[in-house]
Amino acid sequence: MSVTDRYVADFKAFAGNGAASAPSWLKQIREGAIARFAELGFPTTKQEEWRFTSVAPIVDTPFSHPASRIRHPVLSQIESLLIGTGPRLVLIDGRYAPELSSAAGQAGGVRVESIASAHAVPVATSLASTSRATRLGTTARLRP
Question: Average model confidence (pLDDT) for the chain?
Answer without folding.
Answer: 78
